Amino acid sequence: xxxxxxxxxxxxxxxxxxxxxxxxxxxxxxxxxxxxxxxxxxxxxxxxxxxxxxxxxxxxxxxxxxxxxxxxxxxxxxxxxxxxxxxxxxxxxxxxxxxxxxxxxxxxxxxxxxxxxxxxxxxxxxxxxxxxxxxxxxxxxxxxxxxxxxxxxxxxxxxxxxxxxxxxxxxxxxxxxxxxxxxxxxxxxxxxxxxxxxxxxxxxxxxxxxxxxxxxxxxxxxxxxxxxxxxxxxxxxxxxxxxxxxxxxxxxxxxxxxxxxxxxxxxxxxxxxxxxxxxxxxxxxxxxxx
Length: 290
Hints:
By secondary structure, the protein is an alpha+beta fold. Helices cover 45% and strands 16% of the residues. The chain is built from eleven helices and ten strands. β4 (80-83) and β5 form a beta hairpin. It is globular.
């Protein structure tokens, strides 16, 4: 079943209207896992998410639904109208604005810092820990034995990361967005909003700052002193770099899995190349530890 058919059938049931009153406007770009469309439902714009193939390997939809409810008081996300736990479909109200990746993120550091502090200092506690190191092992099992080309490099970088585990484990955890890359921020006239709470959980708040550097780590380096209100110490510098190393290893596994299940051909994206790119980034980050 093609995406337009899915969208029309689901929306007709949810909104109790004719499929003829539902129109697909455009697909929003960003991220490796989902298809998100802007749709017109009887004259009102919404977004409709269809998860990519095997996305359930990385996102628990019950946990996502729990967090969508939990973060409502923060008023950062667009309002969720409907979620389908089994299929991962999600309908939400569309909000006007520009994705931050279409602008210069360096012009929005104060606003991004404010958004992240709103989350981290909210005192909202999730019953779910992001459990990064357990998660990494889970992702590794998905690609075990698939591509030996990257294995030696990967475990070399992972061993370096794990040598700092005690250092990272000492910091208090807060609620975190978990995927605060610039493509998930929406710039409005008077506010900055944050979408896509699939990876939310209790974690080191520096994790979100590191996510901000997903496209370009210089963005995270620029955000850190704004967030802290002072120039980073060596430990603060390393803390940011180490979480970004973790993210590169995490997304390396995700990209490798996507190549493994045939998504390179389906999406015309060389996911093996993407996986190798994340290892290159991890190597550069480790070289810059102090």
